[in-house]
Design a protein that fits this description.
The complex is a heterotrimer of chains A (about 190), B (about 100) and C (about 1000).
Chain A (H helix, E strand, L loop, with lengths): L18 E4 L2 E6 L2 E8 L6 H7 L9 E3 L4 E6 L2 E7 H4 L2 H9 L3 E5 L4 E8 L2 H5 L7 H4 L4 E6 L2 E9 L2 E7 L3 H15 L1
Antiparallel strand pairs in A: 1-2, 2-8, 3-6, 3-7, 4-5, 5-6, 8-11, 9-10, 10-11
Chain B lengths: L1 E4 L3 E4 L4 E5 L14 H13 L7 E7 L7 E7 L5 E6 H7 L5
Antiparallel strand pairs in B: 1-2, 3-4, 4-5, 5-6
Chain C lengths: L12 E10 L2 E7 L3 H7 L6 E2 L6 E2 L12 E4 L6 E5 L9 E5 L13 H4 L8 H5 L6 H13 L14 E13 L3 H12 L4 E4 L15 E2 L2 E2 H14 L3 E4 L2 E6 L4 E7 L14 E13 L3 E3 L12 E3 H9 L8 E6 L2 H12 L3 E7 L12 E3 L2 E6 L6 E5 L5 E5 L2 E5 L2 E3 L12 E3 L4 E3 L8 E3 L9 H18 L32 E3 L4 E2 H9 L5 H8 L12 H12 L3 H4 L13 H5 L11 E2 L3 H6 L3 E5 L2 E6 L8 H14 L2 E4 L4 E6 L3 H8 L12 E7 L5 E11 L2 E6 L4 H15 L6 E4 L4 E7 L3 H6 L16 E6 L2 E6 L8 E7 L3 H12 L5 E2 L2 H11 L31 H4 L2 H4 L4 E8 L11 E3 L12 E9 L4 E9 L8 E6 L4 E8 L14
Helix pairs in contact in C: 5-6, 5-9, 7-8, 10-11, 10-12, 16-21
The chains are: A alpha+beta (about 190), B alpha+beta (about 100), C alpha+beta (about 1000).
């Protein structure tokens, strides 16, 4: 009988992630992180539990990285929690026991295509893509915004490292937009 | 236009979807009227009888390309000046809504 | 002939000689030239023909206000009509042609229009071409279009790319003349984020065109030094070749940067232009001023230009427009042209000054109280006629005349929010309105402060004030000493005469036209504008408007402020459509969403259809199939006979959690959900508050407090928005959390009698009917991979939807097809999906049309009256629940060979095909291989009671008429045995 086991592909549809360097920036498809949304349930206090589990709960518009878990703000009482894919493939199974019925947890790993843009002069690239003021918000900020008609999260990990999370089904359009803007800017 | 989001600061109105009069928060409870006709009248007024002022207007905007908050924006429809922005959820609670 | 009019000096790089062509002839210019300055240096004054009368024209100005020197740049696909030679930056190999002439610029047959001018006066279109009405489109308009007008489009695809972008600053400075540079310096040194835009390729504004000293250096040198300092500040962004085109709301400005227009071809990957959206805390309008002419007879000949332009060509570009020049002025600034040109050794024949009594210019023939009353020269100025103070006339041979009627502040952007400009008598000009865009102030000449000193000072002060508003401190810099001459002007608008004196040169509006408008009572400025077309050309009347309304003021005996002025709209100068479109054109008009099976479907040769942004497989042609019907019939029959697989990932999926999730679903769905047991799915109907159906779909209860809602593909976004509205605005204390998971799961429908057998080969758990009955749902694993299974059916067959994380979507479709091979499984696309749902009588987009109720859809019983769901109350309105209203029905042609046509209307036998007899329409029509004929769903008045009746389906557009039988909408397995099998 034929082998029916399932092999994953990347958001861009390949076996291995894509990486290009254009001028001072490198755009890399990233598949080694797992994502889940975490939303506090009404009237629950999750701060202490989260802290105990090493899960940061940053303020509005912010991103924070812990030892294993990182998180950025999605909306009121809501965060996107990140963890290494290798150890946290089933990230929901890790988070549910931590929060029980105090928070709603939803797997988001495959909802997004993540591209990490690294290098110097990132504001010069992003000013051609979205209205999010990279220079003013700076490292540690994260925001959802529109990027070439796509609702994306722009996560400023440092002055030289920004992650863009866009809808996975539009990974190719998003990657094309990033590449084109880089060629235009540099 | 720029909408000064209570949690996120100034954001381009491009990120928002417009709904209309913030009076839409004050939805009548369809089962709380003595007769079906009374309920229908109340619901009809709620849905269709809205003011359309030339001047200050409280209106609902949805941060669709942002944090998905519904906001109550007080905007002058003549000058576009925005004088106040609140989370709609807070406004709804202040107006006595709960579950 | 080599640059015979080139003189000493200027900010051109004489070491870089540039070759260019105009109307096929080769010329040389220098780096730093504009096309106009280079042509003038070569002795070419004639650059275009006027819009209406085809009069020979040369440049009036040296800037973006240019009405006359409108040319076509480049050739082939990059051909760009209607560009101003006065701002076109010269590059090596530039190719330009004149426009609106035939066969040549010097001999234009349409010049006959000039002789026919009595027929082309103001309002002539309205008066002449009134009758017969049908002649307008077929006869008049084509003739007018050929005779009048400007350049031609290449009609080829624009090969260049354009970008859009977003910039942020504390202070936006519009214009980099003395005021703008002083403002930028003040704010830049204070550490504020500053953006400076200037339409010119050389920053400095009028400082580059004047000979005034600033401090102990020339104005141009001072500007260059400031630009150097600002360039070194990381918080300041200098943007030359960037026109701020409009003020939007709340400190947002639009600007177009011409990135590559000064290059023969943009560098690879680089845009030609960028449309910037600039977010500013405060803005300073330092856009300078525009000189206006004095109208006199035949004042439009090549060689007659604004005095400040004549001086700019000499000072900035080292060009003497004529070897013998004169100046006609009503103010002191005009005198500067005479002194500057004389100082450069140009023969200044006379200064004709309309004023009397002031000091006379030394060493120049200064005629006070005199006027220019006419000009001569067929294709360019050869002489002017002067009327002296004593009434005597004199003909003076000159080849250039500088005219100054005063300067108008460039307040355009300040009136973009409808603010009304204010008349300032001391400078005889309008200044920016007090009620301009919030956060915008004006400085320098744009504010009516015309001396260099006042410009520097007001720029610096405006910056200090703007920063203070933002809570930032800035110190006034030590400003250099600069000229501070007061404005000395005695208004003079036009010289009375019999001939035509041009007011708006681009639209060929004359003083006579204004008089005619007055005579016919079009006296308000808005009527004047529309009747004469004054100011409606591409230059928006930058040089002509004030002149025109001043003439009207004089005719009506009112003052200029009483007469008022029209205001300006964005854009400040014309913008290429490409720049507005940015990258959003062709295939990049919008992003594309690809389904998880896209790669596989492409390999299968699937035909795709755009559904919103999604590309979905429409059908999968097999070798030998020549029509889509063959493919679709095969897919449907194979699915009903065995098993078919379809990618349904595009359906919206919303994860709903929380202790109040059930109550929340009861609020948003017309039917009840809170009673649904865990592990079950229910079909739900969502209403709008007005009682009309918004969307439908299934919602599964995956756990006590965990639900998954599906929406239609098209409504995924609006439904999510609606749910958030209910959650935040109506039920703020409900414990409900929402998040979209549409993209997270690859979901496939597996339908047909062998669906279970196929799936059981992949699913690790028991999915027998006992273990996983109809409408069951739950978490499963697929060969060890986490997944979800839903036993739901829209085809009427035994069917499941199976979901795995999207990264496994490609592998999943391959595994399904592999596992299905023994059952001869097929993949089916959206067409077959549509056929099968119509065969089963399920409503979809054509029935969920925004005007239909649950009752119309035969789902009236789903609306629970026991709970206050959205739309429940108003769905019961009298008109919506009336007997005899539209009900969904099935439709079959009486003769199975006859095809039905969607959109056909139901009529009784014998009834005339008029609206009064209309009984409803066919919403969805498919060919059903199962039934063996065309079948349809339709909305039919009193449809329930008409089952078994015969009616006609009439389509007047498609000219079809078919006798039909009204049947149950369930063409397949009406008892629902199969899907429970």
């Amino acid at each position: 009988m034929a082998d029916l086991s399932l092999k994953p592909i990347t958001p861009l549809g390949n076996d291995a992630p894509v990486r290009v360097t254009i001028g001072p920036v490198t755009i890399a498809e990233v598949v080694d992180s797992a994502f889940a949304s975490l939303t506090r349930r009404m009237g629950q206090d999750i701060a202490a539990v989260a802290k105990g589990a090493g899960i940061p709960l940053p303020a509005a518009g912010k991103v924070e990285q812990g030892a294993t878990y990182g998180a950025f703000w999605l909306g009121p009482d809501s965060w996107m929690v990140e963890a290494p894919f290798a150890s946290h493939e089933d990230i929901v199974a890790h988070l549910k026991p931590v929060f029980g019925e105090t928070a709603s947890v939803t797997e988001q790993t495959d909802a997004w295509a993540r591209f990490d843009v690294t290098g110097e002069r990132l504001p010069a690239l992003f000013e051609r893509l979205c209205n999010y003021d990279i220079a003013r918000h700076g490292a540690g900020s994260a925001s959802r915004t529109m990027l070439e008609h796509l609702g994306c999260y722009v996560v400023i990990r440092s002055a030289t490292h920004i992650s863009v999370l866009g809808p996975r089904s539009s990974a190719q359009s998003l990657f094309h937009a990033l590449e084109t803007a880089a060629h235009s800017a540099f | 236009m720029i909408i000064n989001h209570p949690l996120l600061g100034p954001r381009d109105a491009q990120e928002f979807t417009y709904l209309g009069d913030a009076a839409l928060i004050d939805r009548p409870d369809g089962l709380s009227y003595p007769t079906p006709d009374a309920a229908m009248d109340a619901m009809h007024d709620y849905l269709y009888q809205r003011s359309n002022p030339a001047g200050e207007h409280r209106e609902l905007w949805y941060h669709e390309q942002g944090d998905r908050s519904w906001l109550v924006v007080t905007r002058n429809t003549v000058t576009h000046e925005i004088t106040r922005v609140e989370l709609a959820r807070d406004v709804a609670r202040m107006r006595g809504r709960s579950k | 002939m080599s640059q015979k009019n080139r003189i000493e000096g200027g900010q051109i790089d004489r070491s870089r000689s540039l070759s260019f062509r105009f109307d096929g002839k080769s010329y040389q210019g220098f780096a730093g030239d504009t096309l106009a300055s280079a042509l003038l240096a070569n002795g070419v004054r004639l650059m275009g023909r006027s819009f209406k009368y085809h009069r020979p024209r040369g440049p009036l100005s040296a800037g973006s206000e240019e009405p006359n020197a409108i040319v076509q740049l480049r050739s082939g696909a990059r051909q760009e009509p209607n560009t101003r030679a006065t701002v076109a930056e010269l590059f090596d190999g530039l190719e330009a042609t004149s426009q609106n002439r035939f066969p040549s610029l010097s001999f234009d047959v349409m010049g006959v229009n000039d002789l026919l001018s009595p027929f082309f006066a103001a309002g002539f279109y309205y008066k002449t071409f009134m009758w017969p009405a049908k002649f307008w489109e077929s006869v008049y308009e084509p003739i007018i279009r050929r005779a009048a007008g400007l350049g031609a489009l290449s009609k080829q695809d624009d090969p260049d790319q354009y970008d859009k972008g977003f910039l942020h600053c504390d202070l936006l400075v519009i214009g980099a003349g003395p005021a703008g540079l002083a403002a930028a310096l003040t704010a830049g040194r204070a550490g504020a984020r500053v953006i400076v835009t200037d339409e010119d390729f050389r920053l400095g504004g009028r400082l580059n065109a004047e000979t005034h000293a600033v401090g102990d250096q020339s104005g141009a040198d001072w500007a260059a030094a400031v630009v150097a300092e600002l360039s070194a500040l990381p918080n300041v962004r200098l943007m030359p070749r960037t026109t701020t085109i409009g003020a939007m709301d709340h400190g947002i400005y639009a600007a177009v940067e011409r990135v590559s227009d000064h290059l023969p071809v943009p560098a690879p990957g680089k845009p030609r232009q960028i449309l910037w959206r600039i977010y500013s805390g405060r803005a300073i309008l330092a856009g300078g001023a525009t000189e206006r002419p004095i109208a006199f007879e035949n004042n439009d000949r090549p060689g007659i230009m604004l005095a400040g332009a004549l001086r700019a060509y000499a000072n900035r570009w080292g060009v003497a427009v004529g070897e013998r020049v004169a100046v006609f002025t009503n103010n002191d600034d005009g005198l500067r042209t005479a002194t500057d040109l004389a100082a450069k050794g140009v023969d200044v024949a006379a200064v004709i000054d309309t004023r009397t009594g002031g000091p006379l210019l030394p060493g120049i023939r200064h005629l006070q109280g005199a006027e220019v009353i006419g000009s001569s020269g067929r294709l360019g100025l050869s002489a002017i006629t002067i009327r002296h103070a004593n009434g005597k006339t004199e003909t003076l041979p000159v080849t250039a005349l500088g005219v100054s009627g005063g300067w108008n502040p460039n307040l355009n952007i300040a009136s973009h929010h409808r603010g009304r400009p204010v008349w300032e008598e001391s400078i005889a000009a309008f200044v920016p309105p007090k009620d301009g865009p919030a956060g915008l102030s004006a400085a320098g000449a744009a504010a009516g402060l015309f001396s260099t000193h006042a410009a520097l000072r007001s720029g610096a002060e405006a910056a200090v004030a703007a920063l203070e508003d933002l809570g930032l401190k800035a110190a006034l810099p030590d400003l250099p000493r600069a000229e501070d001459a007061p404005v000395a002007i005695t208004p003079k608008w036009y010289v009375a005469g019999k001939g035509r004196a041009w007011v708006d040169q681009q639209n060929d509006v004359t003083v006579k036209d204004v008089k005619l408008a007055h005579q016919e009572n079009f006296v308000s400025v808005e009527h004047l504008k529309r009747y004469t077309t004054l100011g409606m050309a591409t230059d928006q009347g930058k040089t002509g408007n004030i002149l025109g309304l001043a003439v009207m003021a004089e005719l009506t005996g009112r003052s200029i402020p009483e007469t008022g002025t029209t205001i300006y709209r964005p854009p400040y100068t014309p913008v290429a459509m490409g720049a507005l479109g940015g990258r959003s054109r062709g295939h990049e008009f919008k992003p594309t969403r690809l389904t998880p099976s896209h790669k596989w479907a492409t390999e299968q040769g699937a035909v795709f259809v755009e559904v919103g942004m999604w590309l979905r497989a429409q059908w999968f042609p097999k070798t030998g199939e020549t029509t889509w019907r063959q493919s679709v019939d095969r897919e449907v029959l194979a699915t009903r006979a065995s098993v078919g697989i379809c990618d349904v990932t595009t359906l919206g999926k919303i994860d709903i959690q929380g202790t109040d999730a059930g109550a929340f679903l009861d609020k948003v769905y017309a039917n009840t959900f809170s009673t649904l047991p865990v592990g079950k799915v229910r079909y739900g109907l969502m209403l709008r508050e007005d009682g009309i159906v918004m969307d439908d779909g299934t919602t599964a209860r995956m756990g006590e407090n965990e639900w998954v809602m599906t929406t239609t593909t098209a409504n995924a976004v609006p439904v999510f928005r609606h749910l958030e509205f209910v959650r935040q605005c109506l039920c703020p204390d409900m414990d409900v959390q929402l998040i979209s998971t549409t993209e997270a799961w690859a979901q496939y429908s597996v339908a047909g009698p062998n669906a279970r057998k196929l799936l059981q080969k992949l699913v690790d758990q028991d999915i027998s009917d006992a273990a996983f009955p109809y409408m069951a749902c739950g978490a499963i694993t697929v060969k060890g991979i986490r997944g979800r299974l839903f036993r739901i059916s829209f085809s009427g067959e035994l069917a499941y939807e199976i979901a795995v994380p999207t990264r496994y979507g490609d592998a999943m479709i391959r595994a399904l097809m592999e596992a299905g091979a023994e059952f001869d499984s097929v993949a089916y696309g959206t067409e077959s999906l549509g056929v099968m749902r119509v065969e089963k009588g399920h409503v979809a987009g054509n029935e969920l049309n925004g005007t239909s109720t649950a009752l119309n859809m035969g789902l009236g019983k789903m609306v629970s009256k026991k709970k206050d769901a959205i739309g429940m109350v108003l769905s019961q309105r009298e008109g919506l629940v009336a007997e005899g209203g539209y009900r969904i029905v099935g439709v079959k042609p009486v003769d199975p060979a006859k095809p039905l046509t969607a959109g056909s209307h139901f009529l009784e036998t014998g009834a005339a095909a008029v609206a009064a007899n209309d009984l409803g329409w066919l919403t969805s029509v498919v060919y059903s291989p199962h039934v063996g004929s065309s079948i349809a769903l339709g909305y039919l008045k009193n449809g329930e009671a008409r089952k078994g009746q015969r009616l006609r389906a009439v389509n007047l557009l498609a000219k079809t008429e078919v006798e039909v039988e009204i049947v149950s909408a369930h063409f397949v397995d009406p008892e629902g045995v199969r899907l429970r099998g």
